[in-house]
C-alpha cells in the first residue's frame, strides 16, 4: 500500500516507535515445514492473481519450538503461541461444525432392497473455525486461511462426577480437545496413532462441511460441484477427503456410487511431494474400524471396484493383483 512512511509518522506522533510496536506481536513458532511453506505460497499467490481460494488447517494450541538446553542438549517445549490472542485471527463460533466419530455400522436395506448401511452410535466433536485473512500483493483480493479448533459436545458428565470418578467425568472433553492440542503427536504408541488419524479426519470433515455450506448458498444441485469447487490435497495427510466426500455424496445426498465417484474424481486433485515414510502413512484396519467404520467400508469398496477394473482391462495379467492390493 506504500504507506510505511506515513505509518511511521502516525505512530511517532502518538509517542511510540513502530519497530518496537511490531515486536509486540509474538512469532507463531509452529515450525516451517515444506508442506506448510507450499500452502502459504498457494494462498498468497492466488490472492495476488485474483483467484478466490481458501486454505484449511487445524488451530493447534501449542507449537513445538520453545527451546532450552539441558546437559548440552537442545530440549523442545510446547509453545503457547496464541497466549496473547492475535487480533488477526477471527473466531466464527456461530459456524461451528459437528463431526461424527466412532460408532458402528448397522447393516440394513432401503425400500427397494438395496444395501443401506447406517452409521450409528458415534460421538460428536465440534469444530470451531478461526480465520486468518491473506491479502494479495498490490491487489484487492483477500483469501483466508481457516483453522479449526476441537471442543467436546458434552464437556462434563454429571452422573459420572456424582459417582466420585472426577477425572472420567471430563475425559470426553479432554479427548476431544486433544485433537487440536499439538501438531504431530508421537505415533510410537497406539494412542498416538489414534490421535493422528483423528486429527486428519477432523481436518477433512470440517473442511468439507464448510465447502458444502458455501456451495449450498450458490447452487442447490450437488452434481455441479466440480464446476465450482476444486480441492487440492498435498501428501497423504488430507487423503481422507476423498473418502469423506464419497460418504457425503452417497449417504447424505443419496447419489449412486458411479455418479458420486465421478464427482469426487473431478473435484479432488492429489500431489505427492515426498517418498519419506511419514508422508506415506498407513493405519491398522482395526484402528480405522474403531474410529471410522463407514469410511473403512467405502475404502474397501473403492479397492474392490479398482481391482475389478484392473481385471477388466488386463484379463490375462491377474498376476498384478498383489501389487494392486
TrEMBL record:
It catalyses: [(1->4)-alpha-D-glucosyl](n) + phosphate = [(1->4)-alpha-D-glucosyl](n-1) + alpha-D-glucose 1-phosphate. It is an enzyme of class 2 (transferase). Its EC number is 2.4.1.1. It comes from the Bacteria. GO terms for molecular function: glycogen phosphorylase activity; pyridoxal phosphate binding. SUPFAM superfamilies: UDP-Glycosyltransferase/glycogen phosphorylase. InterPro entries: Glyco_trans_35. It holds the Pfam family Phosphorylase. GO terms for cellular component: cytoplasm. The keyword RNA-binding does not apply. The keyword Transferase applies. Keywords: Carbohydrate metabolism, Glycosyltransferase, Pyridoxal phosphate, Transferase. Its cofactor is pyridoxal 5'-phosphate. GO terms for biological process: glycogen catabolic process. Belongs to the glycogen phosphorylase family. PANTHER family: GLYCOGEN PHOSPHORYLASE, GLYCOGEN PHOSPHORYLASE, LIVER FORM. Allosteric enzyme that catalyzes the rate-limiting step in glycogen catabolism, the phosphorolytic cleavage of glycogen to produce glucose-1-phosphate, and plays a central role in maintaining cellular and organismal glucose homeostasis. This is Alpha-1,4 glucan phosphorylase. It comes from Klebsiella variicola.
Amino acid at each position: 500500500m506504500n504507506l510505511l512512511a506515513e505509518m511511521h509518522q502516525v505512530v511517532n506522533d502518538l509517542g511510540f516507535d513502530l519497530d518496537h510496536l511490531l515486536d509486540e506481536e509474538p512469532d507463531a513458532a509452529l515450525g516451517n515445514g515444506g508442506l506448510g511453506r507450499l500452502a502459504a505460497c498457494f494462498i498468497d499467490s492466488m490472492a495476488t492473481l485474483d483467484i478466490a481460494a481458501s486454505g484449511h488447517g487445524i488451530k493447534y494450541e501449542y507449537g513445538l519450538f520453545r527451546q532450552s538446553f539441558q546437559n548440552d542438549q537442545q530440549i523442545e517445549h510446547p509453545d503457547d503461541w496464541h497466549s496473547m490472542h492475535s487480533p488477526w485471527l477471527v473466531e466464527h463460533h456461530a459456524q461451528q461444525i459437528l463431526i461424527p466419530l466412532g460408532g458402528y455400522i448397522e447393516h440394513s436395506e432401503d425400500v427397494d432392497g438395496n444395501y443401506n448401511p447406517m452409521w450409528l452410535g458415534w460421538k460428536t466433536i465440534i469444530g470451531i473455525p478461526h480465520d486468518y485473512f491473506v491479502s494479495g500483493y498490490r491487489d484487492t483480493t483477500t483469501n483466508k486461511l481457516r483453522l479449526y479448533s476441537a471442543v467436546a459436545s458434552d464437556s462434563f458428565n454429571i452422573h459420572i462426577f456424582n459417582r466420585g470418578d472426577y477425572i472420567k467425568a471430563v475425559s470426553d472433553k479432554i479427548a476431544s480437545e486433544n485433537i487440536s492440542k499439538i501438531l504431530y503427536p508421537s505415533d510410537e504408541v497406539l494412542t498416538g496413532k489414534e490421535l493422528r488419524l483423528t486429527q486428519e479426519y477432523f481436518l477433512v470433515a470440517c473442511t468439507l462441511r464448510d465447502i458444502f455450506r458455501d456451495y449450498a448458498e450458490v447452487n442447490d444441485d450437488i452434481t455441479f460441484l466440480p464446476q465450482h469447487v476444486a480441492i487440492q490435497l498435498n501428501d497423504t495427510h488430507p487423503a481422507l477427503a476423498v473418502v469423506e466426500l464419497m460418504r457425503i455424496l452417497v449417504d447424505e445426498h443419496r447419489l449412486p456410487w458411479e455418479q458420486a465417484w465421478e464427482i469426487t474424481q473431478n473435484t479432488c486433485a492429489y500431489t505427492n511431494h515426498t517418498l519419506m515414510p511419514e508422508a506415506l502413512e498407513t493405519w491398522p484396519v482395526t484402528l480405522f474400524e474403531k474410529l471410522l467404520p463407514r469410511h473403512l467400508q467405502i475404502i474397501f469398496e473403492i479397492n474392490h471396484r479398482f481391482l475389478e477394473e484392473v481385471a477388466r482391462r488386463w484379463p490375462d495379467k491377474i498376476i498384478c493383483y498383489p501389487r494392486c492390493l
